[in-house]
Amino acid sequence: MQTTSPRTAHLQTNRLQTDRLELSAARLADIPDLYAFLGDRDAMRFTQCDESFAACRKRVLVHEWFRRRDGFAPWVVRLRTSGDIVGWGGLYTDPFDPGWGPELGYYLAPNAWGQGIGRELAAAALDYGRGRTSISCLTAFAHPQNSASRKLLLGLGFEAAGFVKEMNRDRFTLLLKTG
Prior knowledge:
The protein has 179 residues and is α+β, with helices and mostly antiparallel strands. It contains four helices and eight strands; from the N terminus they run E-E-H-H-E-E-E-H-E-H-E-E. The chain has a five-stranded antiparallel beta sheet with strand order 1-2-3-4-5, sandwiched between helices. A hairpin with a 3-residue loop joins strand 1 and strand 2. Helix 1 packs across helix 2. It is globular and about 40 Å long. The two termini are 29 Å apart.
């Protein structure tokens, strides 16, 4: 007898692991560590910066509600060796800028830059999307000056899909599943 539906099966797995990372749903206790970089204007210069702790808390909690609804949302990214929070990201449908469909996003603390953590997180998210969701196509965005993010997306197989003037971002798409 099946006790969970495919839409809620993700709730049984609270954590995913990669070689170096542990990916998990956010807890209230994680928000101060997340705000340390999500609220840092320099660190988030190419993306969304939370103006206050309350704004960060709201964003994280709304995404967690979407996880229960959709089966996916950004994960808290921890180093397996230390447990330190170094990022937040994965697959999500943006509740604050709707209309783009499922997206891949990654937000990393400055001490995690340049170490391949974004690539490891993104690869895990794509595997999760292919194996555990019905998502067929993903969108991602990168600021034109964020060469590391653009390189990452292209390296993962995303294709440039044009510039979105009102966002000041390049849009990328990836066919996640065929058939």
